[in-house]
Write a structure and sequence with these properties.
It is a single chain. This protein has nine helices and seven strands; from the N terminus they run βββαββαααααββααα. With 216 residues, it is α+β, with helices and mostly antiparallel strands. The chain folds into three domains: 66 residues, Nucleic acid-binding proteins (OB fold (Dihydrolipoamide Acetyltransferase, E2P), Beta Barrel), CATH 2.40.50.140; 73 residues, DNA polymerase, domain 1; 52 residues, Helicase, Ruva Protein, domain 3 (Orthogonal Bundle). The strands form two sheets. It has a five-stranded mixed β-barrel.
Length: 216
């Protein structure tokens, strides 16, 4: 796995717009590596000077691709986005190209659905699902340090004595899913009586329901 590259950028292919991917070639010890990056990353790299890129080495079947970032925080955010269901490298890069890490942290903290919908290819339902998934798993830096955003989900902090399936149904209704979609999603959730080790927390069950809906 390639984790970093230090060398000189010898070729650049800027993106047509801010949210599209750019490509650069960085020469390291006589070998040129083609790296995909955001337009913002490309703009920050000086010409004819050694640079250091933090790299995510993406391998899928016979395909390999390098994604480069100027900070470890950016790479960590990219990899966190990839962990969300249905998010591939192109979408993860588009999110970071549209909203840098500090902005993304505030978007998740503020439940800013409209801001996520600004990302090309992200509609309202996808943005709603991403908010729920990323708030419960992604840790992003803000101005005063690292903040875990899982606590910002009301369902996670809800009353443990309440019926979690009722919470899940209400959450799915607020996200705009139909009665039939909600029925199928809730029916797919584990039965606590039969599977006591399965998650009973409303937030965890909502994630499972959203994964079911995304795959249906």
């Amino acid at each position: 796995m390639i984790g970093t590259l230090r060398g000189v950028v010898i070729d650049r292919e800027p993106a047509l717009d801010r949210a599209s991917a750019s490509e650069l070639t960085i020469e390291v010890a006589g070998v040129g590596y083609r790296v995909t990056a955001t337009a913002g990353t490309l703009a920050r790299l000086p010409a004819d000077e050694p640079v250091l890129l933090y790299v995510h080495h993406h391998i899928r079947e016979a395909d390999q691709k390098l994604f480069g970032f100027t900070t470890k925080q950016d790479r960590k955010a990219f990899e966190g986005l990839l962990s969300a269901h249905g998010v591939g490298p192109a979408l993860a890069l588009a999110v970071l190209a549209t909203h840098p890490v500090d902005q993304l942290a505030r978007i998740l903290a503020d439940d800013d659905l409209a801001a996520l919908c600004e990302v090309p290819g992200v509609g309202k339902k996808t943005a709603q699902r991403l908010l729920v998934e990323l708030q419960s798993s992604l840790v992003l830096p803000v101005l005063d340090g690292d903040v875990g955003l899982g606590s910002s989900i009301d369902l996670v902090a809800g009353d443990p004595s309440a019926n979690p399936l009722v919470d899940v149904r209400e959450a799915l209704v607020s996200l705009g899913y139909s009665s039939e979609e909600i029925r199928r999603a809730v029916a797919s959730l584990p039965d606590r009586a039969e599977h006591p080790d399965e998650p009973a927390d409303s937030g965890q069950l909502l994630k499972l329901a959203l994964l079911k809906l995304a795959g249906s």
